[in-house]
Sequence to fold (256 residues):
Amino acid sequence: MSARAAWRLESLGFAEVYRYQGGRDDWLANGLPFEGLRSKVVRVVDVARHEVPTCALGTRVAEARARAEAAGWNECVVTNDAGVVVGMVRGRALHGDANALVDEVMDPGPVTERLDAPAEKIARELYERGLTRRLVTTGDGELVAMFFAADVLEGKRAGSGAPPRDERGSSGM
Amino acid sequence: MAGPRAGGTRHAATVIVPKTIDRRVVQRLVAEGAQLVDVLAPQEHDDAHITGAINIHLKRLDARSASVLDRARPVITYCHDYQ
Fold:
C-alpha cells in the first residue's frame, strides 16, 4: 500500500516522496513513539527489566555464571558486537563445565518477544505454559530487556531463582 | 533538505521511483520537517499510528485529500509493513 501511495503522490506532483518500507509494524516493534488506542495498553517493554546479564561469544561458562549470579539471575544472554541476541546460557549449561565456551553450550534460539506486545496477554500466555520470563528484543534482534510474567500478574518483582521447569533444566523461559 | 525530486530516482524519461527508506531515515527526515502519511484505513490509524502521522487512506488518496499536505516538504508514506 505504501508503495502505491508514494507513486500516487508522485503522480500528483509531489516532488520529494519516500516510502517507509518497514511500516507501522517495524516502528512499533522497535518501541518508537506512537499514538492511538493501543498506546493505552501496557507493553512488555514498559514493565520489563532492562538490566540483563550478558556475555559475548567466546566467553567461558565460568564468567557467564559469575555475571548471572552477580545479577541474581539463572541465565546469561549471549550477544554479538551489535547487541543482537545470539544465544542464552542457563540451567545445567550455566552450572556445567566452567571451562567450556558459551558458544558450545548455549541455546542458540531462545524465544523472544516484541517490545510492543501487550504485557498482560503475554504474561498470561507464559503462566499458562508454566514459563516465567521471556527475552525482549527489537525487530532486528537487539537485546532490550527481560520480561517477567510475575511482574504483571502479581504486581511485584519476581524472584530470579525460579525452579527449573523444562527438559533443559532452565529457569522457565 | 534535499532539492526537487530528491525522494526518488529519475529513470530514462520522466518516471520517478519513490525512494524506500528505513526507520532511522524516517526519524531523521521527520526531525527535518518531513510529513508522515499513514495510508491505512481510519480504524487502523485510530488503533495505532506513528506520532504525528496524517491519515489518508489509500482508497481516498487523490488531489483533494492530498491538499492537506505541504508540497514544499518531503512526504513519507507507510502502511502496516513492507507491502
About this structure: The first strand of chain A starts at residue 17 and ends at 20. The two ends of chain A are 37 Å apart (CA to CA).
